[in-house]
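ok so I'm stuck.
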Amino acid sequence: MIQDADKSCLVVGLKQVKKALAEKRAKKVFLADDCDSTLKESVEQLCKQAGIIPERVETMKKLGDECGIEVKASCACVC
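replied:
not stuck anymore, here's the structure
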């Protein structure tokens, strides 16, 4: 899912992902299926505006693991 080469420009967390999308720096977005529905909708809307289709990840735990962090993550992106 998240390649090692992508980890150098990986952004994790809602605020940082929204900022990257607003600044048009995001190239690929990952979104956990089990995150809060309001949060999910807001990220999906920003992705739609940016012309990016977010990749789904089954759980926040799995996304956190993929990002190399020890906590759960609702969303992440590669810039």
